[in-house]
């Protein structure tokens, strides 16, 4: 579903809104270690880490940056639209551990400098938002290139699917950075089709960079990763340009 937006470019440069979940209690780190893609043992007051929480089928519920709070609790910073789903998913598994999981988005003040939506997109970092809940496995958003996945840690929810995709080269859709001209801003989750109407991927993130210029992160089937002929809904996309990502997309082994 595309969005009509104003042409003001400043909104793209404003810091992204963030939501926050606190995990407190003696089992918080142990609990997360068995749930998320990153190695929680590497978290320290001086070292924040990025990761993902997935379903048993490897589909992402939310992405986060984990921080150590002053009182020793763990703060997960995520997109605000996904906080309720993230909270419910964590609590479903957290009942077996001595950890308290709470939404502190309204009260938590973080002094970290946040990327704007456009800066985040150009860094090749998509968000998982409410519209893309359980749509992608981590490698589709290139999280293996971004250090969100530790393939040497023990088991965690979704690990079997994610590891199989990594070691067997089963990732057939990857995220790419494109610029295009359109009056309407595409929405995360929008289906991308070729000019014959065949589905070739989905929008992961979209930001208006200039009046009619939009930049997107699009998860595309490998066969169409270089295509310039695309449409969203009934709207054909014009002046589609493929832009480089600031990292190399991993290739299948």
Brief summary:
This protein is α+β, with helices and mostly antiparallel strands. The chain is 15% helix and 30% strand. The strands form three sheets. The protein has a seven-stranded antiparallel sheet with strand order 13-12-9-10-11-7-14. A five-stranded antiparallel sheet has the order 3-4-5-2-6, with helices on one face. Strands 1-8 form a two-stranded antiparallel ribbon.
Structural description of this entry:
The longest helix is centred in the middle third of the chain and has 12 residues, at 83-94. 15% of the residues lie in helices and 30% in strands. It has two domains: 12-167, Gyrase A, domain 2; 171-243, Beta Barrel (Elongation Factor Tu (Ef-tu), domain 3), CATH 2.40.30.110. The protein has 253 residues and is α+β, with helices and mostly antiparallel strands. The protein starts with a strand and ends in a 10-residue tail after the last strand. It contains five helices and 14 strands. The strands form three sheets. It has a seven-stranded antiparallel β-sheet with strand order 13-12-9-10-11-7-14. Strands 3-4-5-2-6 form a five-stranded antiparallel β-sheet, with helices on one face. The protein has a two-stranded antiparallel ribbon with strand order 1-8. It comes from gamma proteobacterium HTCC2207. One of its GO terms (biological process) is iron-sulfur cluster assembly. InterPro entries: GcvT/YgfZ_C, YgfZ/GCV_T_CS, YgfZ/GcvT. This is Aminomethyltransferase folate-binding domain-containing protein.
